[in-house]
Amino acid sequence: MGIDSLPIPVQNVTDRTSNPFGMRPPFDRTPPGDRTAVFGYGDANADFHLIGDYPGRHGGAETGVPFTGTDSGRALQDVFRAVGFVSGPPAKPICENLFCSYIHMCRLPDGRTPTDEEYDDLERYFDAELRAINAHILMPVGEQATDHVLREYTTQRHRIDLDMAALHATEIRGRGFLIVPIREPTEWEDTEREALVARLEAILGRDYRQTKGVATTVG
């Protein structure tokens, strides 16, 4: 079943960790035998949604799991283990209250960067999955994912300078979401891991589930 035949919102399928909503990539441009896509992975009822760019940048080509097999993925797993969202083996982590996905799930030859048209091709698939997860906190990683999330899920993109060092581990109110941008982990300075851990712990320490109601009126 492709996403075209699924109702929106999609009912959560909580017993499936990988691709819980049965997404099918709309195109396959990889060599025969290669993995066609790195689908969303984790807790389908999560309050926190980690959003990356594409498999060639943030990993998963070998494992099928977002944010695995790369320095970026290892750095992020370390953060989410510290706050209690991730346990188990690095290549196939156990996620609790965390869902991970990419704005461009499909693999491309040699891990090349998607074109603007290819990003556009997958936008509705990502959007459908994001709304099915219905998380409270969106955490885009890197400039491309952050730009997309701010444009599509807030009214503030025109007022925000896309300076990832300045935006890292801050809070931005969106249309029904709280956005916590994350700088590309391979570019982190000495204090940026600790800043992200501290931000997540602060959010967990308050009634963040009220975020959706608050953000709807502010974003």
UniProtKB/TrEMBL annotation:
Domain Uracil-DNA glycosylase-like: 39-170
Keywords, comma-separated and alphabetical: 4Fe-4S, DNA damage, DNA repair, Hydrolase, Iron, Iron-sulfur, Metal-binding
GO molecular function: 4 iron, 4 sulfur cluster binding; deaminated base DNA N-glycosylase activity; metal ion binding
Pfam families to which the protein is assigned, alphabetical: UDG (PF03167)
UniProt keyword annotation of Coiled coil present: no
InterPro entries: UDG_Type-4/5, Uracil-DNA_glycosylase-like, Uracil-DNA_glycosylase-like_sf
GO biological process, one term: DNA repair
Compositional bias ranges of the Polar residues kind: 11-20
Disordered: annotated span: 1-32
Keyword Aminoacyl-tRNA synthetase in record: no
Superkingdom to which the source organism belongs: Archaea
Protein name per Swiss-Prot or TrEMBL: Uracil-DNA glycosylase
Organism: Natronococcus pandeyae
